[in-house]
Specification:
756 residues; alpha+beta; Immunoglobulin-like; 8-stranded mixed sheet; 23% helix; signal; VIT; VWF_A; VWA domain-containing protein
């Protein structure tokens, strides 16, 4: 097994599938003890350590005022009593007051330290503990408590309450909670949760988190509840929430980020349709359910498929059209043509579903054509939910011909939504069907419930608000010779906007300044046009919206893999894939060699990485089986990402996410406003085998031969802290991720530094 693979396997046991950040942390004051962090190599168990057992954050936001309550349970996991202090880094740019600290029900005084005094306190802790962990909060203020005891094995419950005035920028209210302090726990947090209740005097429109996948519930237009929970999680990024308000029906907001003058900028468009009243009439739609009942569906799978069919039937509305096409070696249908949904047809369809039994082959070609040929009305939204658990074994079996026939038969722009069940599906065929027919694939693993996936798909498409959506951009006095001002937009095609769902669209822009966003589509069968102002930044000295760049890069990588998957290898696309992965630290199953500890920097700087990627892309030939499904699941996750991959502690800020045992995705590094991209790690050939971390820009440097190009800085020296004071918070976050027993090269503001 390659060395990096064994290391990833070990660290993946420590990190969960989704990265998060935590909040308050404890500092041992009676002896220097390194802050416990997840690390990639075994370390002796310290005599003094703690773990965070539970972490709950509840916030209520009324317009721009936030009230926050935090409950956090610490456990002394060491074998000695600890005298500790509780530190809480302040959220950025927020006026925080009225902080109350309760420890096991007893109130403790908390001292507010402004940023300058807090910096001195941070530096003192870093020097005393010989650990750079706190560097990421340099420049932030903090609250500091008095000392209190924590006996071995004992628990302490800390409750924190404070009020904060939130900042508003580009029309978005910005809530930040410093969740990332919980990554200093010795063990994963058993349960971590964030709940934010928003109330507004105006209608709440877009609600978006660039850091965490959220569940959003809206009881009415002016209230929303955002929740995020995980178990056995090592937090790794702060929780950030953005929302805006307005009085128009459809709402859109544009965020832009331009880190360098030489390259195109990046933008993010958020668009949310209005919430319909409970008694409002919903647009009428057509739903076709195409279900596999071949022999391989027998047993539990066919029963789950029947339950899924019943769920859809019980959630259709008066005026909807529907039908069920069931197939094995032959194809049959509930009715020869589409049926109007009524109570009588619902009952009849439920009876038909009860009579479905598994047996025979798999005639995918004829099943799809039977369904698509029933669709005649392009003025209403049409959805085809296509479920299969196998490969085409009857009739036309050629993947390309099946896809071409389905595309030709889809004359009404129906949205084809394939669901692959198990590992015996042709995942490339399903992805091709989805891409050619305005849909999205989904995969149900053997241990998952089909009904759960079908209900999720149907709940998403159940209430279309605007259909046949087109997003356009208008600039003042456009110049033809400059080319299109907007380019490389993802997703490539926006089809429908659904109630309760938000459009997250990213792209690049050439031209800065004022512009207009135009969103057109059909609402209730009538054309509608909405216009919104937008401002594209000429430069972005601060990395406030730096996540937009990484989100775009994530989706672009997913699109590249999709192109290579469906159309074969392309030298330029492979090069772009590698360059984007390296620059933005978004590793894929085909570029994971960038995390190889044994790789030499000069090798990483050479064209060898492209040839390695070419070889690894041979895996895309596996369209079937566990590996085929795993690869398409990874690809879809990249293509449809709504949050920017976050860096976590461990491998130089690597966030490790085990998608499947056959596909391990690693994300490493940060993009720091044009100063620093991602970084990799290798062994330095020396007696003590210290480790060296390098950026792509410094990959070809040799620490011994190229001393004239490198400034050497001793860790924890005056020069070290002087460098830290000149850094941005994001740059210090990069330094904070390093281990004290490793050397690393980093490029900041055009200069190379070797930290020893």
């Amino acid at each position: 097994m390659p060395r990096w693979t064994s290391w990833l396997a070990a660290i993946s046991m420590m990190l969960s599938s989704t990265a998060v950040f935590a909040q308050g942390l404890m500092i041992v004051v009676d002896r220097p003890v390194p802050l416990p962090r997840p690390i990639p190599s075994p370390r002796p168990i310290p005599s003094a350590s703690y773990a965070i057992k539970e972490l709950h954050i509840q916030a209520k936001i009324l317009d721009q005022a936030a009230s926050v309550q935090v409950s956090q349970t610490f456990v002394n996991t060491g074998n000695v009593a600890m005298e500790v202090q509780f530190l809480f880094p302040l959220p950025y740019d927020g006026a925080v007051d009225q902080l109350t600290l309760l420890i096991d029900g007893k109130e403790y005084p908390a001292q507010l330290l402004p940023a300058k005094e807090a910096r001195a306190r941070y530096e003192a802790i870093v020097r005393a503990n010989r650990d750079p962990a706190l560097l990421e909060w340099m420049g932030h203020g903090l609250f500091q408590t008095s000392v209190f005891p924590l006996p071995p094995g004992a628990e302490r419950k800390v409750m924190l309450q404070y009020h904060q005035l939130l900042r508003r920028d580009h029309g978005l209210t910005d809530f930040l909670f410093p969740l990332s302090t919980a990554k200093y726990t010795a063990k994963p947090v058993e349960r971590v949760g964030v709940r934010v209740a928003i109330e507004s005097g105006a209608d709440i429109k877009n609600v978006y988190s660039p850091t965490h996948p959220m569940e959003i519930q809206r009881s009415d237009a002016r209230r929303a509840v955002v929740q995020w929970t995980r178990t056995n999680e090592i937090p790794s990024s702060d929780f950030r929430l953005l929302y805006d308000v307005g009085r128009v029906g459809l709402a859109a907001r544009v965020l832009s980020y331009k880190p360098t003058d030489k390259d195109d900028g990046y933008f993010l468009l958020l668009a949310s349709p209005p919430l319909a009243a409970a008694d409002a009439e919903r647009p009428r739609k057509t739903i076709l359910f195409v279900v596999d009942k071949s022999g391989s569906m027998s047993g539990k799978k066919i029963e789950q498929a029947k339950s899924a069919l019943k769920f859809v039937l019980n959630n259709l509305r008066e005026g909807d059209l529907f039908n069920i096409v069931a197939y094995d070696s032959t194809v049959e249908a509930f009715r020869p043509e589409l049926e109007k949904f009524t109570e009588d047809t619902r009952k009849a369809a439920l009876g038909y579903v009860e009579g479905l039994y598994a047996g025979g082959g798999t005639n995918i070609h004829d099943a799809l054509l039977t369904a698509l040929n029933q669709l005649k009305d392009a003025s209403r939204p049409n959805y085809v939910i296509f479920l299969t658990d196998g490969l085409p074994t009857v009739g036309e079996r050629n993947e390309a011909k099946i896809a071409a026939a389905a595309k030709a038969s889809n004359t009404v722009r129906a949205r084809l939504l394939p669901l692959g069940v198990g590992y015996d599906v042709n995942s490339r065929l399903l992805d091709r069907l989805a891409r050619d027919n305005f849909g999205l694939s989904e995969y149900v693993r053997p241990d998952e419930d089909i009904e759960t996936h079908v209900s999720k798909v149907y709940n998403r498409i159940g209430s279309p608000v605007m259909t046949d959506v087109v997003v356009g951009w208008e600039f003042d006095a456009p110049r033809v010779e400059e080319g299109a001002p907007i380019n490389r937009v993802y997703p490539r095609q926006v089809v429908d906007l659904f109630e309760g769902e938000q459009l997250v669209l990213v792209g690049r822009y050439k031209r800065s300044g004022a512009a207009k966003v135009v969103i057109e589509g059909q609402i209730g069968g009538r054309p509608q046009r909405f216009e919104f102002p937008a401002e594209f930044a000429a430069s972005s000295p601060q990395a406030t919206y730096g996540f937009v760049e990484k989100l775009w890069a994530t989706r672009r990588i997913g699109e590249i893999i999709d192109e290579l998957d469906l159309h074969g290898k392309n030298d330029e696309l492979v090069k772009e894939l590698v360059d984007l992965s390296l620059r933005h630290g978004i590793l894929t199953p085909y570029t994971s060699f960038l995390a190889d500890e044994s790789a030499r920097p000069r090798e990483l700087a050479s064209t060898d990485r492209y040839s390695q990627t070419f070889r690894r892309l041979e895996r895309l030939n596996e369209a079937e089986g566990r590996a085929g499904v795993a690869q398409r699941s990874v690809k879809l996750g990249l293509q449809n990402a709504t949050t920017a991959p976050a860096a976590a502690a461990g491998f130089a800020g690597a966030a490790i996410r085990e998608i499947d045992s056959d596909a391990l995705v690693v994300q490493t590094g940060v993009r720091l406003a044009g100063n620093t991209a991602c970084y990799v790690r290798r062994n330095v050939p020396s007696a003590n085998a210290d480790k060296l971390v390098v950026t792509p820009e410094t990959a070809a440097l040799d620490p011994e031969k190229d001393r004239d190009q490198i400034t050497v800085i001793e860790r924890f020296s005056d020069a070290y802290f002087a460098l830290i004071r000149d850094n941005t918070p994001a740059e210090n976050q990069l330094l904070a991720a390093q281990q004290v027993d490793e050397e690393f090269l980093v490029q900041l503001r055009g200069r190379n530094y070797l930290i020893k």
